[in-house]
Amino acid sequence: MPVSTFRAEFLDTVSGLARGAASPGLALFLWLLCVGAAWAGEWLPLANDGIHDPRSRAVKILQQPREALQGLTPDHAGNQVRWVQVLEKGEIRPREKLFPQTVVQKLDLDVILDAKGGMPAVRFPHRPHTEWLDCVNCHDGLFAKSVGQSKISMFKILQGEQCGVCHGAVAFPLTECARCHSIPRPGQSKPVIPAGIDPRIHQAIGQGQK
Amino acid sequence: MSGLFAPSRRLGVLSLVCVLLAALPLATQAEYADVVINRQAEKNGMRPVVFPHWFHRIRFRCKVCHAELGFKMRAGSNTITMTDIIEGKFCGACHNNDIAWSPENCDLCHSGKPGLPTGVFGGHETSGPGRW
To answer: Model pTM?
Structure first.
């Protein structure tokens, strides 16, 4: 379904619902729904994504993100798609190679990296990484092959080096701390998020806006 | 029966306004990991290229382009020319009228807004390496 049609139908449905029921409660519910949708993010049509030229023929021909991504296992960050899970579950079957002579290399080996500053340690799983990538993409350019030979720092990662070549640009973003920092230290309990705190901004709602 | 400001109509309008307001803050966001390629394009009178990672990732794993085809994993670090593409290198390994459309469909790739710099665009939280 083209996106423009979807939008029009959606608006029709929303206003139709509000007219039909004519209850302030429903209007409030719809309003919250809208705000929620904006908060969670939305796939934009190519014509108004800010980088396609809306006058280009391509925006009418190319596949729209919503059409391709809406049926996949959802995420709240990045493309709003949990790409690793989508591949594992077989929701997509991307080709592994173009050339018959290419040897596909995979490795099932976790590396635990201790972290400074009290953060939980990092578990780096080779398996999902090698499902997508080849060894040469990281070794020996971004990282040395032997454990402990690469000095990894969040400063570099935030600058787009090391893990940050992909994470923060094309793989899940750097706001998802706990997906990498997933191994609690001894004696450390799993942090409990108090009520009224948005876990994504680490702040009580209403604070920090004075 | 219902005039312009009858309660039912007002609610309909209100919800419409809500939908529009909700869409507003996201009006200029490319899809996460979209890449604009413009080292050669505009110099040669073409629109910049928009490369959507999300589309290609559904069909090919990263390793196909970044290991087999030799695309370096840093926007702007690859010298991609139409000559190479027509000879079957880089994009031309698939965009050959066999796996995907041929390079004759210029404006399907060259579809970016004029003036955009080369780089990774689109981010719900981050906007590419080092740009928070």
So the answer is: 0.75
